[in-house]
Each structure stands twice: as structure tokens, then as C-alpha cells.
User: Fold this.
Amino acid sequence: MQKQKTNRMNRGFTGLMRVVVVLWIVQYSAETAFAVEQPNVIVFIADDVSWNDYGCYGNQLARTPNIDSLAGNGLRYTNAFLTASSCSPSRASIITGRYPHNNGKAAELHLPIARDLPWFPELLRGNGYYTALVGKNHMSKEKRGANIGKLDSGDTKKAFDLIDNGQLKDNHGAHGKWVSAFENRPKDKPFFFWFAAIDAHRGWDGDREWKPEYGEKHDPLKLSVPPFLVDDLETRRDLASYYNEVTRYDYFVGKVVKALRESGELENTLILVLADNGRPFPRAKTRLHDSGMKTALIAHWPAGIEAVGGDCDQFVSAIDIAPTILSIAGIKPPDTIQGLDQSLTFADVNAKVRRYAFSEHNWHDYEACGRSIRDASGFLLIENRRPELPWQGPADSVRSPSHQSLLKQKDREALTKAQADVFETPRARYELYNSMVDPNQLENLFGAPAMEKKQVELRS
Assistant:
């Protein structure tokens, strides 16, 4: 009797061990497969480049062959919007996946992110990724205790194994070390690179540091001048210098793509190309209008994007980048993230991500406060919370030759409606535009009887 009982126990134990072994093998196999398939990620961020200043977005004069190639072999988003049209608040919003006003002091220019908020590269690093920030940083966390509210650049090291400004003696565009950072990474880990250029921020060091491999400089006489600016030689030269920086940025994006291809890593690397805000010209940077808040967004990932060479017209926001990257890496986004996973669009360009995109404008050199909402039908509603103040743009734009040309035109009382917008005060408390028929957003429809239903919807 005892012998039979012992045999039954042995058989039960043996069966249990078999189950444990089988489960371990299944788990190990799944983990091994996941480790092999876990994608690499590179985020390229331009500084102060508008969405329509790339060839792949219809600009006939911009020379961006490398970015155009990524778009042609990847996915081009046509309705991607930032949450802020100022450098550091925009970047802080991208890296936390939160709206600027929910990032603590970082809603304002040059101030730190609330220290309890995780950055998505922290989570990647904690799950086996090698992470590096090479180029413009412009992000920080609050210090602890009595120093709270002050910058703590050291704390950003929790998110990155490597932080480097990317600059060389003959290249201050912050992209000179991108390729070397990639080549010198640990080869036994998936990688995440935050490659942030200073191109095309003023003051145009690209002109002084121009190299033959970038091609010819842009001809001021062949450029197209936006309706918000004065079409004179000074403005054209200003724009040509800007486009030179866009082309230099594109060149270094191409160098990284070439290194990825030669190393065999291109297939399983998600590349995202975007900017932190619009061009540093009047009626662009710091604006809630498309000229400041809309961004180019290109996704390239041969192993993971089925809609190759397609356009995605679905609404996406900059805060969607963090959960998207975490999702494809197999990491559950934390509850702090307010964005939505847009990776469904990699397989189906018609997959809906969001109904609305929200953006805001806070202090940037001058007092300001504004909020906006866009919907998928093309309407934009702006609330100016400082209507008594003009919306002239940041200090670097105000000091520009383009702005000076506007001032001269103003003195001659010869400004067009689009040009006069920079100086308008008091401004309307609310602005409503139908971007489908008014892409430059010049005709304010707020208060029109036909718009009453739309106004109620968007204001709510």
C-alpha cells in the first residue's frame, strides 16, 4: 500500500516537473524570439523646421533626398501635430508622452520636467536597450528637496547611457558624431538613439561651415517666399540660409541610414523623422497655426511597416511617439503617458488613432498663453488668452532680417493682410479656420452663423 502511494507521488512529481520544464522551454523560447525581434529605434529631430520644407512634402526647392527616400520606402504622415511650437516644451512633451502643461515647469521655455515623470528612454534602458542622446538636449529634470524647480542635468543620465552634444570643431550642427555613436554602441543590445540636430536654428552656422558634399547652396532668387513675409532680397537670403541648414541636416540623416544599411541593422530599425516646431520666421515658430505646430513625420521600418511608400492621413500627436515606441519594444506604457499608440497605422494607414489634436503656446521670450484644438475634418480653433498682446514670434525671429523687412513695410503702410498678422493687437479672443479651404489659416470664421455648431463642439 505504501509502495503504491510512493509510486503515485513519484509519477505526480515527474508529471509536474515535465509541465514545469515545458513551460520553461516555452517561456525561454518566447523570450529568446522576442529578444531577436525587438526592434532598434532612431528618432531624428530637426530644430525649427516646418513640415512643408521637405521635398517629400511637396516643396519643389528644398533638397532633402535622404529624408525623401525614407518617406518613399516608409510611411509619410500628413496630419502630425506637435503639442508646443517652442523647443524645450515640445521636446519635453515628446519624451514624456504628456501635454506641456502636465509636465510641471517644463511647459515654459528652458525649465525642468517634473522629476516624478518617467521618460520613455528610461523604460527602454531598463528593459535591455542601449540608449543615447547625441546632439541638442534641451531637457532636464527638477532637482530634489530644497533645490526643486532647478535644473538637474545629471538626472537625465537615468534615461541615456550616452549623452553627447554631437558637435565638432568644423560642424556645430550637433550631428557630427551621429555615425560614430552608432558604430561604437554595444553590439549585444537593441539600441535607441535620440539624434537631435541644431539645424535649422538661427544663426545659420551652416553657411560658414558649408562643405562640397552637401551640394550647392540654395539660390535666394529661386526660392518661394511665404505670404506672411516680404518678398525682398534680404528675406530671400534669410530663407536660403535656412534651407542650407535643412539640407545639411538631411545629409547627416543619410549618413546614419547608410551606416545602418552597411551594418545590416536597417531592416529592423524604426526610424522616425520630425521637428520640434516650425521654421524660425515670423508667423511660424511659437504659433498655434500649422506654420508653427504641424510637423513632418516619417516612419521607416522595413521589418515592421506594411504600408510602404504610403501616406497616412490619420491624426497623430507628438505625445503618441512615446507609447508607440514602447509598444513595439514590448513594454507597457506607464499610466503617466497621455498619448496613444499609433503603431496600428504601420499595417493599416486608415487605422484611426485620435479624433482631436491639442496644442498650446506658453511663454517664449515674451508673455503668451494660448490653447488650440484640431479635428479630423480640418478645423482649427485657437483661444488667445493674452489677446491684448501681439503674436510676433520669439526673439531670434524678431531680430531676423525677415522681421526687419516686415517692420519697414509696416512703416510704409504697405503690409498685406497675411503680413500684418504679426503685429495685430488686440487679437481676436477666438480664431476658427477651415484648413481644407484655407491652408494658410487667414480667414477667421469664428462667429459666423454657419460655424456655431462647430464652435460649440471644439470649445467643449
